[in-house]
UniProtKB/TrEMBL annotation, chains A, B:
<keyword id="KW-0805">Transcription regulation</keyword>
<feature type="domain" description="HTH hxlR-type">
    <location>
        <begin position="2"/>
        <end position="100"/>
    </location>
</feature>
<keyword id="KW-0238">DNA-binding</keyword>
<dbReference type="InterPro" id="IPR036390">
    <property type="entry name" value="WH_DNA-bd_sf"/>
</dbReference>
<dbReference type="Pfam" id="PF01638">
    <property type="entry name" value="HxlR"/>
</dbReference>
<dbReference type="GO" id="GO:0003677">
    <property type="term" value="F:DNA binding"/>
</dbReference>
<dbReference type="InterPro" id="IPR036388">
    <property type="entry name" value="WH-like_DNA-bd_sf"/>
</dbReference>
<protein>
    <submittedName>
        <fullName>Transcriptional regulator</fullName>
    </submittedName>
</protein>
<keyword id="KW-0804">Transcription</keyword>
<dbReference type="InterPro" id="IPR002577">
    <property type="entry name" value="HTH_HxlR"/>
</dbReference>
DNA sequence: CAGTATCCTCTCGGATACTG
DNA sequence: CAGTATCCGAGAGGATACTG
C-alpha cells in the first residue's frame, strides 16, 4: 500500500483541512471553531480536533477556570500543512464553476 | 453550508489525487494505472476514473481494437489540479515520519 | 484488456441527550 | 463552555465472479 495514502487520509477527511485553514490566523476556542466552520457537528469537531492533535498538527491547551477554556493552535508542522494545502484550496474555489459545468455537460449526454 | 466543502468532496476522494498524480507524465491505460496505484481495487479505479471524467479533469479514449485499448489522459484543467495538488503531496511524503512519530507518542501516553 | 455486476462489511458522520 | 455517550442510517469501498 502506497504510503501517500496515509496522508491523503488526513486530506480526505471531511473536515480536517477546514479546521486547519480556520486556525491559520491564530488559536481559537472550541465554540469559535464550531461557529466558524459552517455545518460541522459537535461530535465531528471533537473527533477531528483529536485526530489532528494526535498527528501533531495542533495543540490543545486547557485552562482550569470556570467556565472551561480550551484553546486550539496549529503546531509548526500544522502551519506547514496549511501552506502546502493552500494552493489546492484556492484551486478548488477557482474551478468550482468549471466543474459544475463539466458535470452538467456530462450528465446531459449520458 | 460552506462552498469549500463541495470542492473538498472532489479533492477529498480517497483515490482521485493519486490518479491525477499518476497521470502527470502522460496518458496511461487502465491496467497501467491499476499497477501504478498500489492497493486500489478494480472497482474503485473504475469509479474514480468515471468521476474524474465527469468533472472534466481527464479524458477517456477508446480504441476499437482487439484486445481493447482505453487511454486516460489529463485535460488542461486536470493538469492545473495536478499543479495545485503537488505541494500537498510533497508535504505528505516529507512529513509522514513526523506524523508516525507524533501518533506513537500520543498513543504511548493516552 | 477493460471493464460490469453483485454482495457485503465497516466506517463516517448526523441527531440527540447528558455532564463537570 | 467544552465536551462525552449512545444510537442509527447511508454509503464508501473491498472481494469475488463474470463478460464483450
Amino acid at each position: 500500500m502506497c504510503r501517500t495514502r496515509a496522508v491523503l487520509d488526513i486530506v480526505g477527511d471531511k473536515w480536517a483541512l477546514l479546521v486547519v485553514r480556520t486556525l491559520r490566523d491564530g488559536p481559537l476556542r472550541f465554540t469559535e471553531l464550531k461557529r466558524a466552520i459552517d455545518g460541522i457537528s459537535q461530535r465531528m469537531l471533537t473527533v477531528t480536533l483529536r485526530d489532528l492533535e494526535r498527528d501533531g498538527l495542533l495543540t490543545r491547551t486547557v485552562f482550569n477556570v470556570m467556565p472551561p477554556h480550551v484553546s486550539y493552535e496549529l503546531t509548526p508542522m500544522g502551519l506547514t500543512l496549511r501552506e502546502a494545502a493552500a494552493p489546492l484550496l484556492e484551486w478548488s474555489v477557482a474551478h468550482l464553476p468549471a466543474i459544475d459545468a463539466a458535470r452538467s455537460d456530462y450528465d446531459g449526454r449520458g
